[in-house]
Amino acid sequence: MPVFQAYSQFYDRLYEKKDYPAEVEFIRSVIKKMSPIPVKNILSLGCGTCSHDILLAKNGYHVTSLDQSTTMLSNAQKKIKSARLQKKITLHHADVRRFSLNKKYDFAMAMFNVIGYQVTNSDLTAMLQNVSNHLKPGGLFLFDCWYAPAVIADPPTDRIKEIKAGKSRIIRLTQSSLLHRKNQIQIKFHVFSLTGNKKTAESEEIHHMRYLSLPEIDGHLEANNLHLLKACPFLKLEAEVSDSEWDMFIVAAKKK
């Protein structure tokens, strides 16, 4: 089942309070502290509506942004045009497992758990192989994912999120199931908007997402000519991963 289709119409509203500036500062910190080569061009995999990419472009980077959802890319295009960054950001409709851009990049990133959507080993291998093929020697690959020991220690729960704007509301119901034998979480999203008590739009999607251990990550990276440099909690570059925090960042480098 395709994901981020009808759900895309609600995406930016649902994540309007996400601290994109802090995440972009983290990306820039990783580049400054860890990249052995100058970074001018960035490959963004699973870019969504380009909230990270727009901020990076405003900081002088040229960004090539990929996503397989046409609706997410349509929203991204509108935001890029509004920010007058068409010369800084290039959009591509592509699957992160299957693309060829005939170009090498200084830095690659997959933000907001794009890795988690690569639910089989063949999916993950295909994505990492593509990343490796598109990075310059020494180029960094930054991504976030869910840390397996933390997920198992603190399993997911059902949640309700509500966004209000005047007389309008967006409500998202999230039901999550832990699939132990697959190292996955099945997430059912039911999202609808209301004006007063009248339902004006609705979306239901099921997302399957993978959680990963460090040995798994290390093995997959090494098999695709990438080397694990750093694993840290979300936005905490100097800290060590913890069994109490789901969100983990990985910094890897293309082998020279």
In terms of topology, how is this protein built?
Layout: H1 8-14, H2 20-34, E1 41-45, H3 51-58, E2 62-67, H4 70-82, E3 89-93, E4 105-110, H5 121-134, E5 135-147, H6 148-153, E6 159-165, E7 168-179, E8 184-195, E9 198-212, H7 214-223, E10 226-233, E11 247-254
Parallel strand pairs: 1-2, 1-4, 2-3, 4-5, 5-9
Antiparallel strand pairs: 5-11, 6-7, 7-8, 8-9, 10-11
Write a short abstract of this structure.
By secondary structure, this protein is α/β, with parallel strands linked by helices. It has 7 helices and 11 strands. It is globular.
Spans of 5+ residues with little confidence (pLDDT < 50)?
Answer: none
Alpha-carbon distance between the two ends: 39 Å
Helix/strand/pairing class, anyone?
A: alpha/beta
Tell me the count of domains: 2
**What is the gyration radius calculated from CA atoms?**
18 Å
Q: Enter the CATH topology name of the largest domain.
A: Rossmann fold
Number of strands: 11
Beta-strand residue fraction: 35-45%
Annotation field: number of helices: 7
Overview of this structure, please?
Residues 42-139 form the Methyltransferase domain. It comes from Candidatus Nomurabacteria bacterium GW2011_GWB1_47_6. With 256 residues, this protein is α/β, with parallel strands linked by helices. The protein folds into two domains: 11-147 and 212-254, Rossmann fold (3-Layer(aba) Sandwich), CATH 3.40.50.150; 151-209, N-terminal domain of TfIIb (Single Sheet), CATH 2.20.25. It has helices at residues 8-14, 20-34, 51-58, 70-82, 121-134, 148-153, 214-223, and strands spanning 41-45, 62-67, 89-93, 105-110, 135-147, 159-165, 168-179, 184-195, 198-212, 226-233, 247-254. α2 crosses α3 (51-58). The termini are far apart.
